[in-house]
Amino acid sequence: MNTFFNFTESDYRQIFETIVRRVSRCGSFSGTITTFLGEVECRLRCVLTVGSATSGDEQYGDRLKIEPLCSTMTTLIGGDRVDNDFSFDDMIYYAA
Fold it and tell me: Rounded to two decimals, what is the model's pTM?
């Protein structure tokens, strides 16, 4: 049985896409966002502020800016909770 889950760049991108779909039209978000990565259920409990930031590049225009006020990631495999190495900062680095 797995006792630890390591997030990959691809995992971070998938979770970020789920977050964007859920919060892109909100000014803030408080709740749980669930993403499934194969057999792994990822539950991100978070409080986020959502806004836009100017990219400085006319080609891209404004970008969605998501800031965590607090967040906790729970990972479950087969219904069993396993520790993980989730980092909101790493997710933003790889996916935003």
Answer: 0.86
